[in-house]
Amino acid sequence: MRDIPLWVEDEDDDDPTKSVWLEGDSLAPYLGTPAESLDAVLSTARIDSTDVLVDLGCGDGRLPIWAVARFGARRGVGVELDEDLAAKAVKHAQSRGVADRVRIIHADIETNDKLVRAALADATVLALFLLPEGIARLEPHLVRHLEADHQNRILCIGWAPPNLEPAKIVPLGPSSGAGLDVFLFDRSSLRTSEQ
Ligand SMILES: C[S@@+](CC[C@H](N)C(=O)[O-])C[C@H]1O[C@@H](n2cnc3c(N)ncnc32)[C@H](O)[C@@H]1O
């Protein structure tokens, strides 16, 4: 891991005047993976310089940016529905000096199947921090990702897909606020689900 300045939460992240999330209008409201948990989350998948991490619903881009800047991942990609968050992610990538290796795409992953497939084509690690219903809807992509290469992994923060067996569950502890877990899925998750 590279010794770089810790991730600092933006001051306006808890601004109650920001847009209100209505159930059903997206796969999850915005809540960043706690800054204190970024190392624990990415260590769970043993991210290294061979990895390309794709975060579907990337918020302010912290996971793909941290994977590249701190763990030396080859590349990072984040797809985000919210225009302001996507713009913020681009700025964070620039200020961390990794804009050449982190691509932020402003798009709806739910209605853009082609884009998701393209984003996952060369991904090794897929990250998701979405509500259970959102993850369930994306499960066909998750299965395809694990089938595509035996090195591929999936990190789910908070909630996991219903039909895949986690290879590992790591509690993020009180620093995650709500006591979230991170779930790691790999090829073994498929075998288990096929039994
Ligand atoms: C819980 S946040 C997680 C943010 C980030 N992955 C992290 O861990 O810090 C979920 C994010 O998914 C985004 N999102 C929800 N539905 C989406 C969709 N259909 N397409 C793209 N992004 C979406 C939200 O705008 C929000 O930023």
From TrEMBL:
Q: Which organism is it from?
A: Chrysophaeum taylorii
Tell me if Methyltransferase is a UniProt keyword of this record: yes
For this protein, the record's Gene3D superfamilies field holds:
Vaccinia Virus protein VP39
CC per GO annotation? mitochondrion
| SUPFAM superfamilies the record matches | S-adenosyl-L-methionine-dependent methyltransferases
* Pfam families linked to this entry: Methyltransf_25 (PF13649)
Question: Sorted alphabetically, which InterPro entries does this protein's record hold?
Answer: FAM173A/B, Methyltransf_25, SAM-dependent_MTases_sf
Q: List residues of the Methyltransferase domain.
A: 54-113
| Signal sequence segment | none
Its BP terms in the Gene Ontology are: methylation; regulation of mitochondrial ATP synthesis coupled proton transport
Family as reported in the entry's similarity comment: Belongs to the ANT/ATPSC lysine N-methyltransferase family.
Please give the name of this protein: Methyltransferase domain-containing protein
Q: Which domain of life is it from?
A: Eukaryota
Print the keywords alphabetically: Methyltransferase, S-adenosyl-L-methionine, Transferase
Cite a single GO MF annotation.
Answer: protein-lysine N-methyltransferase activity
Keyword Methyltransferase annotated: yes
